[in-house]
Amino acid sequence: MTLDGTNTWVLRAPDAASCVVVDPGPDDEAHLRRVAACGPVDEVLLTHGHPDHSAGARRFAELVGAPVRALDPAHRLGSEGLAGGDVIARAGLEIRVLGTPGHTADSLCFVIGDEAVLTGDTVLGRGTTIVAHPDGRLADYFESLRVLADLPPGTAVLPGHGPELADAGEAARAYLAHRTQRLEQVRAAVAGLGGVATPRQVVEIVYADVDRVLWPAAEWSVRAQLEYLRTHA
C-alpha cells in the first residue's frame, strides 16, 4: 500500500540555510538521521496521521529540535496546530495549507507558490489512493479533488508515495473521473445483488480484475462508496 515506500520531502529556497521537512515517515532510525543531516530544520509538517507518514515524527523532533505541526492534535509536538488556510513562511518559502479531507479526515496538502503541491495520500504518484472509511469520507474526497483540480496548470505533484507528477490539476481530474466511474460500478453491483450487498460482495464484482492482495484496501473504499450512496441517493 506504500508503493515504493513513503516519500519524505525536504523543502528550502535555494539561498536558505534551514529547511522544512514534510512527513518524516516511519520510525526508521537510519532514515530519520539521514533526513536530519539536511538540517537545520525549522518545522516538521504532517500531511496526515497514518503511521507510514508520522510514526517517526517524535524521534525526528528529538533529533532536530523542531516542532511537529499537524491537523490532528494527537500528532502535534509543540504549541501550534495546522489547518487549511494557514500560510507557513519558513526556509525562504511561502507554504500554503489546503484542507483536503477524504483519504482521512485530517489530510492536508501543502502548496508552494505555483510550482508544486505536496499531496500526501490524497493524490499518489502511481495508481489511486483509498478512502479510509469511516475516518475518510467520499463526499469530502470529491470536494478535495475539485480544489486540487483548480490549481494553476503546471503545478507539480510531490506525493506521499510514488514518483512526482507534472500537473496536479490533470491528476485530480483523472482521479475524479476514476472515482465517479467506480461509484457507478458499485451502484450497478448493488442493484445486481438485489439492492442489498456487503462490501466484500461488491469488491468481488467491481474489483474482479484487481490483484486479490489489494482487495482489503479496496474494501475500505467500497465501504466509503456505499455510505456515499446511502447519503447522496
Polypeptide structure, described:
It is a single chain. The protein is α/β, with parallel strands linked by helices. The protein has a domain of 159 residues: Metallo-beta-lactamase, Chain A (4-Layer Sandwich), CATH 3.60.15. It contains seven helices and nine strands, in the order E-E-H-E-H-H-E-E-E-E-E-H-E-H-H-H. It has a five-stranded mixed β-sheet with strand order 5-6-7-8-9, with no helix packed on it. The protein has a four-stranded mixed β-sheet with strand order 1-2-3-4. Strand 6 and strand 7 form a beta hairpin. The longest helix is centred in the C-terminal third of the chain and has 25 residues. The radius of gyration is 18 Å and the shape is elongated.
Main beta sheet: 5 strands, mixed
At the first level of CATH, what is the class of one domain?
Alpha Beta
User: Secondary-structure element sequence?
Assistant: EEHEHHEEEEEHEHHH
CATH homologous superfamily of one domain - what is it?
Answer: Ribonuclease Z/Hydroxyacylglutathione hydrolase-like
> What is the mean pLDDT?
95
Structural class designation: alpha/beta
β-sheet strand percentage: 15-25%
User: Which stretches are low in confidence, meaning pLDDT under 50 for 5 or more residues running?
Assistant: none
User: What's the tally of helices?
Assistant: 7
Give the fraction of residues assigned to helices.
Answer: 25-40%
